[in-house]
Design goal:
- The chain is an all-alpha fold and 378 residues long.
- The protein has one domain: Up-down Bundle (A middle domain of Talin 1), CATH 1.20.1420.30.
- It is 75% helix and 1% strand.
- It has a two-stranded antiparallel sheet with strand order 1-2.
- Helix 1 packs across helix 8 and helix 4 packs parallel to helix 11.
- The protein is globular, with a radius of gyration of 20 Å.
- Keywords: Membrane, Transmembrane, Transmembrane helix.
- This is Ionic transporter y4hA.
- It comes from Sphaerisporangium melleum.
- It is a multi-pass membrane protein.
Length: 378
């Protein structure tokens, strides 16, 4: 999320036109369905519009980010995706009662597991199939992984072991500390990645591949920036998409929870659904970069998404919990902690050599599959 990616499609292209129409459609649909009881077919259409609005919001955030450049562009992308994630979480928390007190934890943990295992594994798989060996910069990737592990431990593991309050939750001073540290570490990482040590996060060409060819691929990152007019249009459509996403999520929140309950699945699955929806654009971008031989950018996208999910979502939910009332359960259970520790250990061993094969990709994908299985069948 915090990296240069290929320039988004022009607003005049077919993809750009669809992305421009979806936010407007979402706002119109929101005005029609708000406060009404909807039949099943209409519910399905609203869900499709909601999913399309998420993709459109990220597209327009990329347009604005490409115009303003780094490091501000990465911040716009991170804030836009975090607003979507927080909006979905809050929409479900305000209507879910006490069962939603752990929704923020479930969503953030799902984002960490899906990015650090699912997206990383997919990126390594695509790159290794293309080049036999996926190569990347261990300094930059290792710094990103270390930050993710630290944020996950401080925000999701420690609440299960603190004794100031009963249950897996922080006391108020502890919650404030975790929120401030999360923001500080995320902000410092953005500065290091985009300003201080930017070369640590640039693509590395595979062995035996001419440097000129790798450089040619990197030229895609420097496509002409969109015009000020296109950037302003995208900014307006981004705001409309965010309003549509948050509003439609509020409309659909009872349906989502009822569907999960009717299927006999744990409430943690709701967090998985939110994470999958929010991370879909990042997954597609990571796979596209891996296919073009830019494994480093794919890993930057994956770990940057995990970092933003923890470093921005937890502080936002912490502030919102003042008005929501009730407990904010952040601490992970024993099974989740085991999976997180295993993910951290495997991630370190994958990153240290600066290269990976199909085996490392398969290990990460198996961990992601294990997490998804245990979420549905704990």
């Amino acid at each position: 999320m915090n990296n240069p990616v290929p320039a988004p499609a022009s607003i005049r292209s077919p993809i750009g036109l669809v992305a421009a129409a979806l936010p407007v459609l979402a706002v119109l649909v929101l005005g029609v369905v708000w406060g009404r009881s909807l039949p099943g077919v209409v519910e399905l259409l609203v869900v499709l519009v909601l999913a399309g609005s998420v993709l459109a919001a990220v597209h327009h955030a990329e347009v604005v980010a490409h115009r303003v450049g780094e490091p501000f562009g990465s911040l716009i992308l991170a804030v836009a995706v975090t607003v979507i994630e927080v909006g979905l979480i809050l929409s479900l928390m305000t209507s879910g009662g006490s069962s939603a007190s752990s929704l923020a934890r479930d969503t953030v943990f799902a984002a960490v597991m899906i990015t650090c295992n699912g997206i990383v594994g997919l990126s390594l798989l695509v790159s290794a199939l293309r080049n036999r060996i996926a190569v990347f910069n261990p300094e930059g990737t290792g710094a990103a992984l270390a930050t993710v592990i630290t944020l996950a431990t401080l925000g999701l593991v420690l609440p299960s072991f603190t004794t100031s309050t009963p249950g897996p939750e922080f006391s108020t001073p502890q919650l404030v500390f975790a929120a401030v540290v999360s923001l500080a570490l995320y902000g410092l990482f953005v500065f290091v990645q985009n300003v201080r040590h930017r070369d640590y996060f640039l693509p590395v060409h595979p062995p035996g591949r001419p440097a000129a060819r790798a450089g040619a691929a990197a030229d895609d990152d420097h496509a002409p920036a969109p015009s000020p007019r296109d950037a302003l249009i995208s900014l307006g459509l981004l705001l409309a998409a965010l309003v549509g996403v948050v509003g439609l999520a509020k409309v659909e929140s009872p349906t989502i929870e009822n569907a999960v309950s009717a299927a006999g699945l744990p409430q943690a699955v709701v967090g998985v659904v939110i994470a999958l929806l929010v991370l879909l654009p990042e997954t597609l971008a990571a796979a596209r970069n891996a296919r073009r031989g830019r494994t480093q950018i794919s890993l930057n996208l994956a770990l940057g998404s995990a970092m933003a999910s923890i470093g921005l979502t937890i502080p936002a939910i912490s502030v919102a919990s003042i008005w929501l009332g009730g407990p904010l359960l952040l601490g992970l259970g024993a099974t989740q902690i085991v999976l997180l520790v295993l993910t951290a250990g495997v991630g370190i061993l994958t990153v240290m050599p600066g290269r990976a094969t199909l085996l490392q990709a398969a290990v990460h994908l198996c961990l992601c599959a294990a997490y998804l299985l245990l979420s549905a069948n704990p």
